Each structure stands twice: as C-alpha cells, then as structure tokens.
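Here is one chain, start to finish.
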Amino acid sequence: LIGVKVMDKNGSGNSSDILAGMQWVADHQKEYKIKVLSLSLGAQPSGSRLDPLAAAVEEIWRRGIVVVAAAGNAGPKQNTIATPGVSPLILTVGAVDDNRTPKYEDDKIAEFSSRGPVNRNLVKPDIVAPGVGITATDADLEYTGSRRPEALKIPYKSMSGTSVATPVVSGAAALLVGRNPGMTPSEVKDALTKNAFQMNVSKYAQGKGILNIRKSMGI
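Its structure:
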C-alpha cells in the first residue's frame, strides 16, 4: 500500500499536483508493482474530451492499473459526476447508506452521492459501496474540511462521502488482482460491476448496483 500525497492538510489541491502524483504512479508502476490506483478526490470537469485528469487516468488504465475514483458529493441532482470519474474507462464509485446491516435490500443511495449521466448518456457511477458513517482512523485532529466528521473516541472518526466508498471498491479490486494477477483492468471492472446487487433506483444513481465482493470472487 503506497500513499501519494497530492492534497494539503485541508483536503485542497491543484490539478497540477494531482497530475504530478499520477505521473509518479506511472513512473514507479513496475518498481512497486502497482496494480490499483484509488482516487478519493475530484474536481469540476472541464466539459472537454481532453479533460486533463480524465486523460491522465485513462493513460494509467491502459498501462494495466485499475483506476477507482470517487463520483463526488454533489448529489442528488443529475449531471454532477466529478472528474476524473467522468472517464468512461475507469471505475467510478457512488455511495450508499447500508443502515448498519449486512443486507443489501435496506441500503439506500446517499443523498449527497453524485449522479450521472456524463455527456448526456454515459452511465456513471459504475458501482456504489458503503459511504455513510464509516469509521476510520483520525490522522489529523486539526482537520478543518468543510464536512468535519462526527467525533468518535480518539483516534477514530466517522466519515461520509464517496471518498470513503471509493477505497472499499479499490480494496475489492486489489483482492481480485491478488487472486488473479493476470486480470486486466477491464476484466476487474467487469467482475465487480456484473456481480453487483441491483437496486430499484435510477442507473444514474447506482450504475450496476452495490458492490458484492463475495459474488465477484465466487465465494
């Protein structure tokens, strides 16, 4: 697991820094055997097919790295997917509230989760995963982000957002690649999306549905 810092302590950054981080991943792919790139970040898309962040993740995808990116937290309106999640190649992740149960049937799309389509008819997100009230380690007690997490017993905090749903899918992708090292990014994407649990909501909210890693791995 390799962390590449592209944001400041407040969770803000520039596209140039993100692009530099992606270039670092590409340059060190073989050295560190990088198989999955998890991007809990996003920006307003440029509206162009030449969107620099989208173009960068597509190049990394073509190098054989599974790219997983957050859909964004601009829902519930449609056409709110953040870049680089607008790329048709990569895995774009929305968030669900799992109601603290293991059942899929009572899950609901998080209101904040960004919706598609992208460019009128591209279905995004591709998949959704738990992203509401997720317990995580609290690395910075002075965090001043606009969505300050509900405080839990230090050193943990409760977080919500597509940025916490994204690493769930990234972890699932890593499990698949770990079991089958020869899988291509497209094969990983197909395995995850085709085995997702479909909800009774718009495809522009859920993509193919809720991540089902057990079914994806055949267990």
